[in-house]
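Exercise 3.2. Students should predict the tertiary structure of the chain below and write it as structure tokens, then compare their answer with the key that follows.

Predict this chain's 3D structure.
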Amino acid sequence: MRGGRHSILKEGLTPGGPAFVGAWLAAPELPLNHEEITLSMAYSPDDSSPASPTDASFMTLLSTAQHLARDTRRNPRSHMMLIMVAATVTAFAAALVAYLLWPTWVARPASAPDRLPVSVGGTLFNVPTAAIRRKIQRHSGPQERVDLNFLFPSLQPPDAPKHVSADTVEEKVQPIDRIFVSISAHHDALAPDLRFGTIYPRYLAPASTPVDDALTMRSFREGSPYANEDLFFATTPGLNARCSRDGLTPGMCLSERRVDGADLTFRFPRSWLSQWRDVANAMDRLTAQMQGPRG
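Answer key:
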């Protein structure tokens, strides 16, 4: 009787019978990972506010980092592949930028101007750069002296001199094909016209020799400062030249004229006197071409 009441009482206190007791005594099933925990959690509508775009982006970045970390643990060499790909892309981009920015022009030396404005004795001259004989004189501005040379009869600047060695030098004397001009400050020295009219006559021989219908020659006396030289002069066109005589070297003539604060000295072979009119006109042309603009 007692056992029966106990069974009845047990059944009344435990609804559902043995099945409920077994369920109550069973060990709770633990979640396996973080995802199951997240899925099993429940929130009421009042527990949290709607996620902002910033929070969504942060969660996306965090999820991506977690996936990459899991992939890296599964394959340790995957991160090395990523580094190699990034390095390759960076190197290609740097090479492309360098190619696009690399200069394509060829460096060339700066060419000199055709003419240089020089001031000699306070007088302005525009001289051809290629005609200047000395490299140190190839600059604009004030100078004490400028030496030039021009081809005759074209009066063009000559080509640059060629390098001559012992193997290429020619024993034959080359003919002179140019007229030389020196522009120098006179510093109030005696003018060429006065020297011709007052100094030279003191040393000239009395006799004069006509060379052409308008060109006359007079020799300097022996023992004078101008021995072994002759003086040539003409009026139309005007020419005054003091010339050395031919010897071991060909005779050369010197003709001077003054332009304001500078003296122009022309030098040319004596043999050119056979065409002295052309020589006189050439000197006039060079003087006019080299003079600067006048106010």
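Discussion points: Residues 1-6, 8-15, 20-27, 31-48 have pLDDT under 50 and may be disordered. The first strand starts at residue 115 and ends at 120.
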